[in-house]
């Protein structure tokens, strides 16, 4: 306001030059007070003043109207003189106020026009002021951008120095320098307006390529230095206590790994213990090294060097795993190699292979999977690819032995080891699915599943071959003493072992049968084997010329079958009906033995043919003087009896009834028939001989002597063995 009062006197005559000068000054002052936006209209400053003047003019008009009304009222009232004076004064005051108002309106009008001129004059100055302010802002932005750019250059130089020194001294700092260099590349890639940006990018990319090359060398060197074959002792330490081999046990004699040969003392409880037991995790690489390998792998993947990383890891770790398995005792064998082996050697190798599979899957490969997961964390496809390629050949080497077994010539003794191999593959199935998860490992999973099916198929075929072999066994070697035939004991033991594998066999039947209960299938197969054995024994019994020995042989073997079934789980499967039916068969053969073996000698001590009545008037148990009997015939009977009994004693004391209870019952059955008949014969016809010369020549044995000698029957004595 002071500026306006000094420079905008309404009475002063102003030229355009003066107006521009004063307008410029006014613009500078106003911009110092508050920079106005471009296009601001100074006439807006007069609006409040104009509004006030207008209001005052309206008030004066209202006062005039009120004055006229008041004068009219006063005239009507009669106080005209006094009111006229007052009205005159009021009118005078209103006139003055009106004059002042008109003057102010005039002044303000002149200001309006002058400010319009002022605004037009100040517009160029305002534009220049805005441009200067914009330039200042641009300069500030440029300086800030330059500071950022220079900082990136400084960081790039520091990273370059660290990279040129290499990763050996300080790997973590080296990795940080690579990461910073990547940020620089991203920064300059996004700064397209930078004049020398392409050159900087080329230099940074070249430096990064060198850094990654050194990183590959460092990854390989670090991985190789930490990757050592796992000694068998370390693997055994990861086993549960119940599965660890004992170096001093007799079973380990000749076995370098201490695992011992395989035996058929199989128990399904062993499998459940294997599943429930806890295996300690194997540390493949020192834990402090794993994070460094992970960081190196991350940088190599980010640089697009996945293939180099994969090759390095595969070549290094695959050879380490292979050497670990070789130290354990795993070897790649062909069908021809297996075929050339002696059964004892092959059986031991199969037993070891079962342990190797468990150790490899649950400990070695599981440890390698954990290592891959840690090093390649965040890169699922690369992780699975590395694991699959470094374990594939080693899994193939393990499975090759199983494949060779399935392709080799089948034989009955291989059934149980085939079932053992089938069991371990089934036991490890869930573990294999977990360790070898992912699409890349599908081929490995399929190969292990394929071996499991081949083992099941071979076991089933071997089972069928065994049934056929039992029925068609053409062994010419007969057991001379009528004891249990080796084939019988072999088949019965075979069947008993089958029941140790009952759940495995049921699972095997489920894989190949479309309907029916697996328990009944196992019972049916067992009955068929038993029937095949009986059929074969019937054929072998025909080799004996002595019918008594034929029946003794069949009695011994069928009794052995019945007794073995009663004492095993086969009884529940075959049922009591089978047991009772075959016990009757045993009794039938015992009766046939007595009839054919002792019928002839019993005729010697009968009265038939000695008395004049033909024996019809007296029985062996009757008392009498033997009248009517020829002394010569009686002597001949005693003589024939002695010869026949001595022959039976000599022959049947070499025969064998291995079961003690059956042997005693058979002796008793013979004694119950022979001794009463002999006593009666001696009592009735003995006096005829005793009254003659040398009666002891004919009556050589008392009933007690015969009973004692019967006690020597079925003992399996040799010819040169002295009598008791």
UniProtKB/TrEMBL annotation:
Location of the region described as Disordered in the Swiss-Prot/TrEMBL record: 241-274
Keyword Protein transport in record: yes
Highest taxon in the source lineage: Eukaryota
Record's keyword annotation contains Protein transport: yes
Domain Exocyst complex subunit Exo70 C-terminal: 352-711
GO cellular component, one term: exocyst
Gene Ontology molecular function terms on file: phosphatidylinositol-4,5-bisphosphate binding
Record's keyword terms, sorted: Exocytosis, Protein transport, Transport
Gene Ontology BP term (one): exocytosis
Homology family: Belongs to the EXO70 family.
Function: Component of the exocyst complex.
UniProt name for this protein: Exocyst subunit Exo70 family protein
Species, as recorded: Linum tenue
